[in-house]
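EI: anyone free to look at a 142-residue chain?
SC: sure, send it
EI:
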Amino acid sequence: MSLLDALGIAASGLTAQRIRLETVSSNMANARTTRTPEGGPYRRKVPVFEAEPVRGTGFGGALQRELARVEVREVVAAGGETQMVYDPTHPDANADGYVEYPDVNVLEEMVDLMTTARTYEANTNVISVTMQMADSALNIGR
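SC: here you go
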């Protein structure tokens, strides 16, 4: 595995976590959105991650076959149950006075946000350490 492979893997992790952060932010911002252009309440979104193998040959091939970059294939609706809340004064209340709210749990989104931040930080540390290793290798050659 080369230093460039390590940087590529960490960079793909940063990109995936940025998309996850944007998705979580959107979920939190729309936690009370009862009307969307598609009709009905907002639906919680989640990114779909997929491992993209790092191609390798030679002595390091066995190791490289186990390494993978992460790719976000798509962002999809999570498909959870919406919440029916009795509020006959709400403009989107049905005939019985119930309003259909999104399937977003703000506490779960906060946990996802913290996990995303920690994962992003871990990937930035990998990049930092990889750059330090490259610098050390160059200094040995001097």
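EI: Residues 3-137 form one domain.
SC: 👍
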